[in-house]
Design a protein that fits this description.
Distance between the termini: 40 Å
Radius of gyration: 24 Å
Shape: elongated
Largest sheet: 9 strands, antiparallel
Structural class: alpha+beta
Number of strands: 9
Oligomer: single chain
Helix content: 40-55%
Strand content: 25-35%
C-alpha cells in the first residue's frame, strides 16, 4: 500500500472513532477547555503507536507520525462541532437591535421556555423576561403572565406595543 493510501485509510478510521466518541460524550460548552487535553492525547497516542511500530514494522511508523497531526486536526474540529451540536439540540436564538441595545431571544427546546435579555455593552447582558414558548405551524408564541409575543418569518411582533414588527436575525451555531 502506498503511504497516501495508508494515511487516507487511517484518516477515515480516525474520523469514525472520534466522531462516535464526541457524539457519545455530547460535550457542552462548559467542557470546551477539555480541547487542550484531548488534542494532545490524540497526538501522544499516535506517537506511541508510531514508536512501537518503529521497532516492529518500520514502514507503518511514518504513517502514524503523520496521522498524529491529521487526527489532532480532526479531533479539534469534531470536538468543537460536538459543542455546537449540543447547543443546537437544546437552544435556538434570535437577535435584534433597537438604538444602541442588542436584544436576544433564547428558546430552550427541552422545557419550551424562552428568555429575553438586553445588552448595551459587549460582554454583559441582563435578562428581563422569561416565559412559555409554543409553536403552531410556522409561528412561535412567547407568553408570560401579562404579555404575548409572536415570531413569524423571522419577525418579532408585539414587543413594545401591539403594532411592533421587528426584523430578527437567527443566531446559527
Amino acid at each position: 500500500m502506498k503511504l497516501i493510501t495508508k494515511i487516507l485509510f487511517l484518516t477515515i478510521i480516525d474520523f469514525i472513532v472520534i466522531w462516535s466518541w464526541v457524539k457519545e460524550i455530547d460535550p457542552e460548552p462548559s467542557v470546551s477547555i477539555a480541547i487542550f487535553v484531548v488534542v494532545p492525547v490524540v497526538i501522544i497516542i499516535n506517537l506511541l503507536i508510531a514508536l512501537v511500530l518503529y521497532f516492529t514494522k518500520k514502514e507503518y511508523s511514518k504513517v502514524f507520525v503523520i496521522n498524529s497531526l491529521v487526527s489532532a486536526v480532526i479531533m479539534y474540529f469534531l470536538f468543537l462541532n460536538g459543542i455546537d451540536r449540543h447547543q443546537n439540540l437544546r437552544y435556538e436564538s434570535w437577535e435584534f437591535n433597537i438604538k444602541d441595545t442588542i436584544f436576544n431571544i433564547t428558546h430552550s427546546k427541552l422545557d419550551n421556555t424562552f428568555s429575553i435579555s438586553e445588552s448595551t455593552n459587549q460582554g454583559s447582558s441582563t435578562g428581563f423576561l422569561d416565559g412559555k414558548f409554543s409553536r403552531k405551524g410556522n409561528e412561535y408564541y412567547l407568553t408570560t403572565d401579562s404579555t404575548k409575543y409572536r415570531i413569524r418569518n423571522d419577525y418579532f411582533f408585539g414587543f413594545r406595543n401591539s403594532t411592533d414588527c421587528i426584523k430578527l436575525t437567527k443566531i446559527e451555531r
